[in-house]
Amino acid sequence: MAIRVLLVDDQPLLRTGFRMILEAEPDLAVVGEAGDGQQALDQVRALQPDVVLMDIRMPRMDGVEATRQITGPDRSGPAKVLVLTTFDLDEYVIEALRAGASGFLLKDAPAAELVQAIRVVAAGEAMLAPSITRRLLDKYAGRLPSGDESVPQPLHTLTEREVEVLRLVARGLSNAEIAAELFVSETTVKTHVGHVLTKLGLRDRVQAAVYAYESGLVRPGAS
Fold this sequence. Notes:
single chain; alpha/beta; Rossmann fold; 2 domains; 10 helices; 5 strands; Sig_transdc_resp-reg_C-effctor; DNA-binding; transcription regulation; WalR-like
């Protein structure tokens, strides 16, 4: 079955461009469009898309609040949110990730990258490329600990291997890449990731990465 996509952007020309790219793919179907966050909520309820391509700065309701409602506890369907922005990594994007977005791309990303991102998010993974994690590190560099501080209390609930997996998730590695790095099976990695999310009360890999930066587990210059 085709992945059902809802386009949310206040610029009609951009929506048209995205539609042309996505409808050229046999496994993707654009089921609707919205010009602001409120319309997006209405369309999500009516159309039940799998993935919402969400602009951040829009009239009436911005993409952050729309994301929060689409992915929150009162959600009306299975839709996942992929944020599109022209602003690189700003506070709006950080808030969208905290609100429950499954990742983000810049609007000038290559068409192939956009298509792959939708497939990744629809499959339940997070679109968290290494280039994005580097921008996250840069964003938090000024407020991250130096390395001498004690580990935040919630991290003490993780095993040594789970902490290791969390660091690799924060670097943007996929389950397969983590498995290769740690010489374990991909199934084992999935189990570890699941334990990390459960113990820390996090929704997905994106929130896990943001947590890793904010807690100081991952620091600027770390490989």
